[in-house]
Write a structure and sequence with these properties.
This protein is mainly beta and 944 residues long. The strands form twelve sheets. The chain has a nine-stranded mixed sheet with strand order 13-14-19-15-20-21-22-23-24, with helices on both faces.
Length: 944
């Protein structure tokens, strides 16, 4: 087992050799991809010897590409990719054993990612991985699959019937395009100012006040050098000779479509956030919200005082800021979600970059391949989320949470739609991220391997959309959201709510939809916040969990958007119903805590996922009332989405059965006690996400006065003695009470413990106290973190925070002194490595075998203990070679936490050969091999 704070998380230590101070250098652990002779601890003496080193295949080696690196007096867990990792929207994360280790800092080379060891959230670093939205970055795409056999192309879904309206058709207005650039703004947490730039596309000669659509792009490279294809960066501001990448101009086609239909559209630039948000705990969501609201604030100013507007804006139509649609791509999607929240429920002033009152009303949002790191969607504003089936950036399709995460939180009247677009990647919704269309270098984000082509998503695959096809389909569904959420045209609803109708303008894209909210009433919700749901003939499974309770086990190829990971290794109360049958006829029964009413509904709408590429999964759907009377409502058939091991295709499809049979059988529709699914196919698997009473129509939506919770972070010094108690800062606002799920993360193990907590007026609220024990020993900073998620009648802004206890003790110095540096062969050479004082963490030093100077005889591989030598060579040389020439010539030694010394040993052996006096030289180094002080020298005299 690799222990993050026991084996690899050792501190850099200032080294003094035999009383001679080096010139300001450091010792550090050897890079894990370098074989070394390691020192083991002698439990009786508290010292170590290298004669019983751990074998090279033991489990405490870091995987290839990983090492412990020293920088500015701190140790870092570092991973280096074999080639540059494109700057994207998914957050790069280090994980171990399925748990989040931390979010590393990208380095300037685009290949190296570093996480300070004192920010490592778990002690166990077994099965280290680098992930971005659930996708492994540290292994080749297609690994584990046959790299020779050509896989058949998955079957695409059938073409759906056309809807009664097509929002992708251009409107009656000609359009005009212009830009504005305003003074930059400073946003909390970002050192450099952020640009205030927007490209506007507006209708010509449109009468009256016009609705507004604002677009925000996602996280992409920020700067490029014209004419140099590979010269891009994530810098801000851009260096001399480079230009900002115009990501905000990538939605001009979408803007022109909406403008032709009467909307004033503006797409804003956020390079200044992209270049600075890597360290933001929320991924930059609050900063993006502030930027959006700064722009909306300016538009409100211009509406009130037209003469103050830029010339192009003055020439355009008047705007109606009571009708605003926000469109966000990738991290821009999370930004628009937070902007809606902040417009309705005021954020903490210290975090906010826009302090004025909201003078606008956001009627709906569109999220395109979005992130949602906080998993905190706003429940009472309608949303449409596009899930690209071939997304290679936010590949876990975590944006599904914008739909699933709203259930049961508030009134449930806002429609939240998920639009699964087969064959779409992440980048091609933005023409400035599309090869052949962008001014700056751009690429296809899907993780394609020419030697292991993906039959669905690799370029040229039958199901893959071209860039223009994808962009057109995206524009069509953006326009659908505008027409329904802002325009109130209920005819569009059937295109996005699971009714099974298509918008012809999106052809040839195959698009499937489902929804929650709207005119859905009471239903069967496996993760009902009231609890008490029971499953018979099936099991309640956990969306995110280690082990057997997980809805999708670790051996499943591919993933599910419904089960995207959050911040904890296990989430209580986030569930589905898992069905697994070997023969037809065994009913799965779902029984809520209390009977539900389906009075007035037309149908029962179920969201059910089946494995990708399967066909013919059939169920009979039945209900029972509180008196046990049963009625079969009808039968449904579900075919799996096309998918591969590289896609997130375990996605629930919406099917509906009429309630006519229940009425005819005279069931009490006000008290339906259970739902039954009876498989008709021979065998199979399925996951029921939920079922709802449904009727057509789109109800009016009014935001409820929800409680808002924001977790803060307090940084304290640990002190020299005693125990101090601190409370995690939590801000709760609002006039009504609600509930959240609180997770407290153990600072030593990274494990979390969760519970349901009531917040708001009349409740105890969130009160987490942290005890910080002071001492005079050097150690890591210690984070005591908590995270929260909305459950009922709440929204969550900052979902993570805690108390950070900073180490305030100086790092001890190391000295190295000879114990036995002049010996007779057969005796061990020894040097004592000592700390000036005890530390709370392991302290390390390195010594590299180097050539002996002056032409003197050097100790060889035949002169040392062969078990010890095995750590330095792959095979024992047939003919002796000097120790300085062994392949892995670094001696790696540690002083364990709480100890003050260890012994560096070179064990020699006695032979019968008469030899001259031999020497060995060891150079203390840092982790980059730079010398630290003078070399150590040992002398071995002949015993014969």
């Amino acid at each position: 087992m690799i222990r993050g704070r026991k084996a690899w998380a050792t501190a850099i230590a200032v080294l003094t050799v035999a009383g001679v101070a080096p010139t300001g250098a450091y010792a550090a652990p050897a890079p894990p991809d370098v074989r070394t002779a390691t020192v083991t601890q002698d439990p009786g003496t508290g010292t170590g010897a290298a004669t019983a080193a751990v074998p090279p295949d033991a489990g405490d080696e870091l995987p290839p590409g990983w090492r412990i690196a020293a920088d500015n007096g701190r140790n870092h867990l570092e991973w280096r990719a074999p080639e540059p990792v494109p700057m994207g929207d998914a957050r790069v994360e280090f994980r171990a054993n399925g748990e989040l280790v931390g979010v590393p800092e990208p380095q300037d080379d685009g290949r190296t990612f570093r996480l300070p060891m004192d920010e490592v959230r778990t002690a166990d670093l077994d099965e280290l991985q680098v992930q971005a939205a659930g996708r492994r970055l540290d292994e080749a795409p297609g690994k584990g699959a046959s790299r020779k056999a050509k896989q058949p192309a998955p079957k695409l879904p059938p073409k759906l019937p056309a809807g009664t309206v097509d929002p992708g058709k251009a409107g009656k207005y000609a359009t005009t395009t212009g830009e504005y650039s305003l003074p930059s703004v400073r946003l909390p947490g970002l050192p450099a100012p952020v640009e205030m730039r927007g490209v506007v596309v507006a209708p010509k000669k449109a009468p009256g006040k016009r609705p507004v659509a604002l677009f925000l792009h996602g996280r992409h490279s920020t700067c490029y050098v014209p004419g140099k294809n590979e010269d891009i960066s994530g810098d801000w501001p851009c260096a001399k000779g480079s230009k900002p990448i115009p990501s905000h101009r990538g939605y001009l086609r979408d803007q022109k479509l909406l403008a032709s239909q009467g909307y004033v559209t503006v797409s804003i630039s956020a390079n200044g956030i992209n270049g600075q948000d890597w360290s933001a705990e929320d991924g930059g969501a609050q900063a993006r919200s502030s930027l959006i609201r700064n722009h909306l604030g300016r538009w409100a100013d211009w509406a009130a005082k037209p003469a103050s507007a830029p010339a192009f804006v003055r020439k355009g139509p008047k705007t109606d800021l009571s009708k605003v649609l926000l469109v966000g791509h990738s991290r821009g999607g999370e930004g628009v979600n937070r902007a809606v929240m902040d417009s309705l429920y005021k954020p903490p002033a210290a975090q906010d970059g826009y302090r004025s009152k909201a003078r606008w009303k956001i009627r709906g949002t569109v999220h395109i391949g979005p992130t949602i790191f906080g998993q905190n969607p706003v429940p009472d504003v309608p949303s449409l989320t596009i899930l690209p089936g071939c997304d290679g950036d936010v590949s876990d399709l975590q944006g599904q949470v914008y739909t699933d995460g709203t259930r049961g939180v508030s009134r449930g009247k806002a429609l939240h739609s998920s639009v699964y677009m087969v064959g779409a990647n992440h980048n091609y919704f933005n023409s400035e991220w599309t090869p052949g269309q962008a001014k700056a270098p751009a690429d296809d984000d899907f993780w394609h391997d020419p030697e292991a082509r993906d039959p669905l998503c690799s370029p040229g695959a039958p199901g893959r959309l071209s860039a223009n096809q994808q962009h057109k389909a995206g524009a069509t569904y953006i326009a659908a959201a505008a027409r329904l959420f802002v325009g109130g045209d209920d005819r569009v609803r059937q295109l996005i709510d699971g009714t099974g109708r298509r918008a012809p303008s999106a052809d040839p894209a195959r698009v499937l939809t489902h929804a929650v909210g709207g005119n859905r009433g009471a239903g069967f919700l496996p993760d009902d916040p009231r609890g008490g749901v029971k499953a018979g003939g099936a099991k309640l499974c956990d969306a995110v969990a280690p082990g057997r309770t997980a809805c999708l086990g670790s051996k499943v190829k591919g993933s599910s958007p419904h089960f995207a990971e959050w911040r904890t290794e296990h989430e209580a109360g986030r569930r589905a119903i898992a069905l697994d049958w070997k023969k037809p006829g065994t009913a799965a029964r779902v029984t809520p805590k209390k009977p539900v009413s389906v009075k007035g509904a037309k149908s029962l709408a179920l969201r059910v996922a089946v494995p990708p590429n399967t066909s013919g999964t059939r169920f009979d759907v039945s209900v029972r009332d509180a008196k046990g009377k049963r009625a079969k409502l009808g039968s449904v058939r579900i075919d799996g989405l096309p998918g591969t091991e590289r896609t997130s295709s375990y996605w629930a499809q919406e099917v509906r059965v009429p309630l006519t049979a229940a009425s005819r059988a005279k069931l009490n529709l006000g008290k339906i006690a259970s739902l039954e699914l009876t498989p008709k196919s021979r065998s199979g698997k399925a996951w029921l996400m939920d079922a709802w009473s449904w009727k057509p129509g789109t109800p009016a939506v009014k935001a409820a006065p929800l409680a808002r919770v924001d977790i803060g972070r307090l940084t304290v010094k640990e002190g020299d003695a005693g125990v101090r108690t601190y409370q995690v800062p939590v801000r709760t606002t609002g006039k009504n009470a609600g509930a959240v799920r609180l997770y407290v993360i153990d600072p030593d193990t990274g494990k979390s413990a969760g519970k349901l907590v009531k917040v708001g007026p009349g409740t105890a609220g969130i009160k987490v106290k942290v005890k910080v024990e002071g001492n005079k020993r050097y150690g890591w900073d210690k984070p005591h973190d908590i995270v929260v998620k909305a459950v009922r009648s709440t929204v969550v802004g900052s979902d993570a925070g805690g108390v950070l206890a900073e180490n305030d003790d100086p790092m001890p110095t190391l000295t190295v002194k000879p114990v036995a540096a002049d010996v007779t062969e057969g005796e061990p050479l020894k040097w004592r490595i000592s700390l000036s004082e005890k530390a709370d963490i392991d302290m390390w030093a390195l010594a590299e075998l180097i050539p002996v100077t002056g032409g003197r005889p050097e100790l060889s591989t035949a002169d040392v203990d062969q078990e010890w030598l095995s750590m330095l060579v792959d095979e024992t040389p047939k003919r002796p070679i000097p120790l300085s020439k062994v392949p892995y010539g670094t001696l790696w030694h540690t002083i364990p936490a709480g100890k003050t010394s260890t012994t560096l040993t070179v064990p020699t052996i006695r032979d019968q050969v008469k030899e001259p006096t031999e020497y060995v030289s060891l150079q203390p180094t840092d982790d980059d091999g730079k010398p630290l002080g003078p070399p150590l020298e040992g002398t071995v005299r002949d015993a014969s």
